[in-house]
Amino acid sequence: MNTLSFPEFNQDCFSLLCRNLSKKVFEKLKDKATGNGCTLYQTINSGVVNQDSSVGVYAGDAESYTLFAELFDPIIEDYHGFSSKDKHLSYLDPSALISPNPDPEGAYILSTRIRVGRNIAGMPLGPAVTIEQRNEIEGQVVKALNSLTGGLSGTYYPLSGMDESIRSRLVEDHFLFKPGDRFLDAAGLNRDWPNGRGIFHNAEKTFLVWVNEEDQLRIISMQPGGDIEAVFTRLVTAIMKIEKSVPFLFDERLGYLTSCPTNLGTAMRASVHIRLPQLGADMPVFKKLTDLFHLQIRGIHGEHSESERGIYDISNKKRLGVTEVECVQNLYNGIIALINREKEFAAASD
Ligand code: ADP
Ligand code: CIR
Questions:
Q1: pLDDT per residue rounded down to tens, the chain (350 residues)
Q2: Other beta carbons within 10 Å of 134
Q3: Active-site residue (options: 214, 324, 326, 342)
């Protein structure tokens, strides 16, 4: 891409980047750079190269969100419904959640997973870290993780040198990130791969931390079944403990800062893998219900993947301008509605 000319977008490009980058804003921002050298070119490259992006931008550092605010703010408002005058509030208290297992018999929910993204205060975000900074982050995070005790204690497995059969099995079993994501590639997030990347997990693989993927930390709690409260409680305990030794990048207005603007605020995605074959066969009804509860439908191998055997990944779409408790509570309320509708469909087809 020519750094000085306005990017060309295909007719069928509907990304938030293409909808929100006007020629006027482009001209105003195109020669600016943050203290870490992040430019507009770097910020928008993923969406220019990948015209099927849904969003298309990644921030290289905290300053990018203010220096390029004329691009980021409308994108953030579009995705989260969060205006430039709003202020994010965090509320990480599992006791505030009302979520008895919505599927105690295990007829629908296969597993529950809640993750948050975190980055380190004072460091650039992934698209702009140097190899030395990435290694330093890995060292700092692993030191903090190795000091965890009880159910959170575990082992760090660096990606460099990991046995290929173990790596692919971890991906297949939904525990580890995939390599070579083209959206992250174009954002500069895969530089020096696999250096500095890895996964920490406890023996049961119910508590996991991805290091230096899209964000510097992805803190994950997951387990089979629908006990959302147990998953949230374990996650919050882990976040609080890690935060004692790793200072997280936090902004008064935008909450926890992440490289992708869809993850700002809570940086939380709470999801279930759920079997909904009848609803899956009637997408308009399925979509209407998920939209009502601000939920997103993904395939069972994560973003940009397909559903298999009527199983879907259902999660909160909005992460900024809602508290963590609200994210999880909305998911819970949505799941109840989805299960009820699935039961109605099944009864009608009997
Ligand atoms: P992220 O959740 O970190 O934004 P992805 O959508 O790529 O990223 O998902 C990462 C992995 O987590 C994928 O393998 C996906 O199948 C898995 N996953 C997500 N939700 C669940 C769940 N509820 N149960 C089991 N695995 C899940
Ligand atoms: C896109 O625009 O489609 C990709 N950059 C992904 C956007 C949201 N997902 C994410 O951050 N994992």
A1: 545 799 999 999 999 999 999 999 999 999 999 999 999 999 999 999 999 999 999 999 999 999 999 999 999 999 999 999 999 999 999 999 999 999 999 999 999 999 999 999 999 999 999 999 999 999 999 999 999 999 999 999 999 999 999 999 999 999 999 999 999 999 999 999 999 999 999 999 999 999 999 999 999 999 999 999 999 999 999 999 999 999 999 999 999 999 999 999 999 999 999 999 999 999 999 999 999 999 999 999 888 888 889 999 999 999 999 999 999 999 999 999 999 999 999 898 87
A2: 21
A3: 214
The C-alpha atoms of residue 17 and residue 29 are separated, in whole angstroms, by 14
Please indicate whether residue 218 is annotated as part of the active site: yes
Q: Which of 269, 275, 319, 341 is catalytic?
A: 269
Among 15, 55, 185, 301, which is best to mutate for testing ligand 2, by the most ligand atoms less than 8 A from CB? 55
- Contact of 178 with 92, CB cutoff 8 Å: no
How much distance in Å is there from the Cα of 24 to the middle of ligand 1? 38
Q: Please indicate whether residue 115 is annotated as part of the active site.
A: yes
Helical packing angle, 40-49 and 69-80, nearest 10°: 50
Q: How far apart are the first and last CA of the chain?
A: 57
SS3 of 158, please? strand
Interhelix angle 228-245/131-146, nearest 10 degrees: 120
How many degrees, rounded to 5, is the angle at CA 79 between CA 75 and CA 84?
55
Instruction: For the chain, give the number of residues.
Output: 350
d(CA 60, CA 41) in angstroms, rounded, equals 11
Amino acid identity of 223? Answer: Q
CA of 220 to the centre of ligand 1 (A): 10
CA angle centred on 57, ends 271 and 266, rounded to 5°: 35
